[in-house]
Design goal:
The chain is mostly beta strands. It contains 1 helix and 10 strands. This is Outer membrane protein with beta-barrel domain.
C-alpha cells in the first residue's frame, strides 16, 4: 500500500510531455466497458431480511463520457451510462439494472507520443431497479439510489493521432446505497463502504480526440 501511495504521488508531481491530443481546449469522447466486484456490509432495516456481512455484487458497466481539456494533460468531463449487477446474500439473489450520471477529472502522464499513464477521480449518482428472490420464495419490486466515487489508475496507448485505447483499474472507491421496497413502501437496507478495489474493478475503453 505504501509503494502504491508513493507511485501515485510520483505521477501527480511528474512533469509529463504534451502532445496535440492533450492540449488545452481539446475534446475527448470516450466509451468504456467496466467490470467490478464489490463486497458490502449490509445493514437491514426491515426485520424480515436478516443482517449479512457477506454481500458480494458482480457488475458490468457501460459508461461513455465527454471531456474537455481545461489545461495541458488534464481533462474535466461528464459521463453517464448503465450497468447490470447480480449479487447474493442471506440466501437471497438480486439482479439489478443501474443507471449512472456523473463527472470525472483525468490526468494524463505522457511518457512518449503513444504511451501514457492515466490517473482519474470520479463521482456518480446511481439509480437502480433490483428484483429480489429470497429464500422464502418472495418476489417484489424495489428501487435503489446512492453515490459512487473513487480513484482509478490505468495506461493509455494511442492507436492513431485521434484514437486511443485504455485499460484502467480502480484503486479506492466509496459507495452509498439505499434500497426501498416499492410494494410495502419500506426501506429494506442501507449501506456505505470504502473499498480497496485494485484487483476487483477493471475498465477497457476507446478514446476519440478532437
Amino acid at each position: 500500500m505504501k509503494k502504491l501511495l508513493l507511485f501515485l504521488i510520483f505521477l501527480m508531481l511528474f512533469q509529463s510531455l504534451v502532445y496535440a491530443q492533450f492540449q488545452k481546449g481539446s475534446i475527448m469522447a470516450r466509451g468504456n466497458v467496466g467490470y467490478k466486484t464489490t463486497h458490502t456490509e449490509r445493514k437491514n432495516i426491515n426485520p424480515q431480511f436478516p443482517n449479512s456481512d457477506n454481500r458480494t455484487e458482480n457488475i458490468w458497466i457501460l459508461l461513455p463520457g465527454l471531456g474537455y481539456f481545461i489545461k495541458e494533460n488534464l481533462a474535466l468531463g461528464a459521463q453517464g451510462g448503465m450497468g447490470r449487477g447480480t449479487n447474493s446474500y442471506s440466501e437471497s439473489r438480486t439482479v439489478t439494472r443501474d443507471f449512472y450520471a456523473g463527472i470525472f477529472l483525468r490526468k494524463f502522464l505522457v511518457m512518449d507520443e503513444k504511451f501514457s499513464f492515466i490517473l482519474e477521480g470520479y463521482g456518480n449518482r446511481v439509480w437502480g431497479r433490483p428484483f429480489f428472490e429470497s429464500s422464502g420464495g418472495m418476489f417484489f419490486d424495489s428501487k435503489v439510489d446512492g453515490w459512487n466515487t473513487g480513484i482509478s489508475l490505468g495506461v493509455h496507448y494511442m492507436l492513431s493521432k485521434k484514437i486511443g485505447l485504455e485499460l484502467r483499474s480502480g484503486i479506492l472507491e466509496y459507495n452509498t446505497t439505499n434500497t426501498y421496497n416499492l410494494m410495502s413502501q419500506t426501506n429494506i437496507s442501507q449501506s456505505s463502504e470504502f473499498d480497496l478495489n485494485l484487483l476487483s474493478n477493471f475498465g477497457l475503453g476507446l478514446n476519440f480526440f478532437f
